[in-house]
Specification:
By secondary structure, the chain is an alpha+beta fold. It contains 13 helices and 16 strands. A hairpin with a 3-residue loop joins β3 and β4.
Length: 373
C-alpha cells in the first residue's frame, strides 16, 4: 500500500463519513483523485477498505446483546456446525456467528434480543442439547464493566505494528475516559422506515442518501409500505434523528484485516481481581487493536477477544496470563464463510404497536420448526 493511500485510510478511520471533498482537503489531493483511490481501495479480492458500518446501540431500541459460546463434542460435531449455521441464518435476532477452537471448541453466537426475552433462548439451547452434539452453552450478558478498543492504524508502519503488548498495561491512557452512552429506549418514537434505514446504515453508511433510498426501493426485502414512505426529505430527517439520539452509536471503517496483518482473532476467558480489571479498563484507550473486554463482578469472571497480528499474540497471551487466573484461550475462525455479521432485521418490528415481536413462539418455536424440516 502506498503511503498516500494509507494516509487516506487513516483519515477515513477518524472521519468515516467524510465526503471526498473533505478527505481531499485534509490530505492535500483533489476530489477526483480521492474518488479514484477509494474506488481502487474498495474493489477487488484483496481490497483494503470494505465499507463503513453503523454500530447499533441496542438499548436505545429496547434490545439487549447476548453472547453464547456453544461447545461441541463427538463425531457428529460437523453436522451440528451445520445446524448452528442454519440457526444463525434463520433466527430473526442473530447478529453474529463464528467458529471457535481451543479451550472451547464450537461456535460463538451473538443475538440482539428484545429486552427480557433471553430465557427463551436458554430454552431453545436446552432443546438443541437434547438433539445434537452440543455439550455445553455458556451465556454471557449484563457485564458490570464493558469496554472496547478500536484499531489505530497509524501504529502500522512499514509492514509492522509499532506497539509492545508487554509494556501496554503500564502506559498512560491518551484518549481520556469513555463516556457512558444513553441507554434509554426510544422505540416508541420509531417506525418501520427508521428500522429499514438503520439496517442499511449498518450495511454501508458511506452511500449517499439518494443511493440508500434507491437501494431500499429496489430490494425485495422491503415492503411496499416502507418504499411508499421514502422521500429524500423524510430520509434525511430520519437519519438525522437516528444520529442525534445515538441509536447508531458510532460509525466505523471496516477494512481488510489481512492488509494490516491482523490475522489472529483470540478469545480469552478466566478470572481476575478487580484491581487488574481496573488496570485493563484504564489502559484500553492505548490498545491499537480491535477488542472487547467484559467483566462480571459477582465472581470476577472476564471474557476478552482481541484481533492481533501474529507477532503480538505471544506477548498478549503472557500479559493476560500474568493478570488473570484459570485463563483459557480459543481462536476465532477467519474464514469469511464461517464469520458472519447480520444487520438488524426490520421485519421483527410491529409498527402499529411500537414493539418487537417477542413471543416464545416467534423466538423459539418457529425457529425450531424451520431447523427440523
Amino acid at each position: 500500500m502506498k503511503d498516500e493511500e494509507q494516509k487516506l485510510i487513516l483519515y477515513l478511520q477518524k472521519h468515516p463519513l467524510a465526503t471526498n471533498a473533505e478527505i481531499a482537503s485534509a490530505i492535500g489531493k483533489t476530489p477526483p483523485t480521492v474518488k479514484r483511490w477509494l474506488d481502487r481501495l474498495m474493489t477487488g479480492v484483496d481490497r483494503a477498505i470494505i465499507s463503513v458500518s453503523g454500530i447499533l446501540n441496542p438499548q436505545r431500541v429496547g434490545m439487549e446483546m447476548h453472547s453464547y459460546v456453544i461447545e461441541l463434542q463427538g463425531k457428529n460435531s460437523p453436522k451440528t456446525f451445520e445446524v448452528l449455521k442454519r440457526l444463525g441464518d434463520v433466527h430473526p435476532y442473530t447478529s453474529y456467528q463464528n467458529r471457535i477452537f481451543g479451550a472451547q471448541n464450537g461456535m460463538l453466537m451473538q443475538f440482539t434480543l428484545p429486552s427480557g426475552t433471553s430465557p427463551y433462548m436458554d430454552e431453545m439451547f436446552d432443546e438443541l442439547i437434547e438433539t445434537t452434539s452440543i455439550n455445553r452453552v455458556t451465556h454471557y450478558w449484563q457485564a458490570d464493566y464493558s469496554v472496547e478498543s478500536f484499531p489505530e492504524l497509524s501504529k502500522y508502519r512499514g509492514g509492522y505494528w509499532d506497539f509492545k503488548f508487554s509494556e501496554w498495561l503500564d502506559s498512560t491512557p491518551q484518549n481520556g475516559e469513555v463516556m457512558n452512552a444513553d441507554h434509554t429506549s426510544v422505540l416508541d418514537k420509531m417506525s418501520l422506515v427508521d428500522l429499514a434505514l438503520i439496517r442499511e446504515l449498518m450495511i454501508n453508511s458511506r452511500r449517499k442518501q439518494v443511493d440508500i433510498v434507491n437501494d431500499i426501493k429496489s430490494s425485495p426485502l422491503y415492503s411496499e409500505e416502507i418504499k411508499n414512505q421514502l422521500t429524500q426529505r423524510k430520509v434525511s430527517r430520519r437519519i438525522e434523528f437516528i444520529n442525534e439520539l445515538k441509536i447508531i452509536s458510532s460509525y466505523r471503517l471496516l477494512y481488510n484485516r489481512a492488509r494490516f496483518k491482523l490475522f489472529n482473532h483470540l478469545f480469552f476467558s478466566g478470572y481476575m481481581s478487580d484491581e487488574n480489571r481496573s488496570r485493563v479498563q484504564a489502559a484500553m484507550s492505548n490498545l491499537p487493536f480491535r477488542s472487547s473486554f467484559s467483566y462480571f463482578s459477582s465472581d470476577q469472571r472476564f471474557v476478552w477477544w482481541i484481533n492481533l497480528p501474529p507477532e503480538q499474540s505471544s506477548d498478549a497471551m503472557n500479559t493476560i496470563f500474568s493478570i488473570s487466573r484459570e485463563m483459557q484461550m480459543a481462536i476465532l475462525d477467519n474464514n469469511p464463510q464461517h464469520l458472519i455479521f447480520y444487520p438488524l432485521w426490520h421485519g421483527n418490528f410491529i409498527d402499529s404497536e411500537k414493539r418487537w415481536r417477542d413471543s416464545r413462539e416467534y423466538i423459539v418455536d418457529t425457529v425450531m420448526q424451520d431447523l427440523n424440516r
